[in-house]
Amino acid sequence: MERTFLAIKPDGVQRKLIGEIIKRFETKGFTLVGLKFMSVNRELAEQHYDVHKERPFFGNLVEFITSGPIIAMVWEGDGVVSAARKVIGATNPLTAEPGTIRGDYGANIGRNLIHGSDAIETAQREIALWFKDEELVNWQPTLTAWIYE
Ligand code: DAT
Ligand code: MG
């Protein structure tokens, strides 16, 4: 089953949007398999955003993601990587569609509330970076037959 890495960024935590954000993935039908509330050190932040290290906003990105606690999560489901990106919305909250998390709660590209892996291979890399195997829970919700044919 496909898995993705999602993280509620420091702005989402500070703005008390943890419950609201998690609820959207739960009610959609995805399965939570890992979750931790944590501070991010500079080394982890730089590894996570390694692909952006040459970009002008890289310094701000690392500063921001290490500025307060975050929620790191792994979610499972058919097509969850791209479907979660749709629930999250476009990178810039100002152009993200209403109904998406960023479209509903964000107003600035540098404060866009949540991270989601952008491809299956990226998800595998990010899950391995943020979680140990034993921190992930393999389970099948009893509701599964009512969500999947
Ligand atoms: P996404 O988070 O939608 O995958 P991304 O991977 O292109 O977007 O960029 C990572 C984060 O970097 C993004 O969530 C916010 C920040 N960012 C991206 N483009 C930016 C820009 N032009 N100016 C400032 N911050 C930017
Ligand atoms: Mg990205």
From TrEMBL:
It comes from Myxacorys almedinensis A. It is an enzyme of class 2 (transferase). Its cofactor is Mg(2+). The lineage of its organism: Bacteria, Bacillati, Cyanobacteriota, Cyanophyceae, Leptolyngbyales. Major role in the synthesis of nucleoside triphosphates other than ATP. The ATP gamma phosphate is transferred to the NDP beta phosphate via a ping-pong mechanism, using a phosphorylated active-site intermediate. (Microbial infection) Catalyzes the phosphorylation of dZDP to dZTP, when the bacterium is infected by a phage that produces the substrate for the synthesis of dZTP (2- amino-2'-deoxyadenosine 5'-triphosphate), which is then used by the phage as a DNA polymerase substrate. Residues 1-138 form the Nucleoside diphosphate kinase-like domain. GO terms for cellular component: cytoplasm. The gene is ndk. This is Nucleoside diphosphate kinase. Homotetramer.
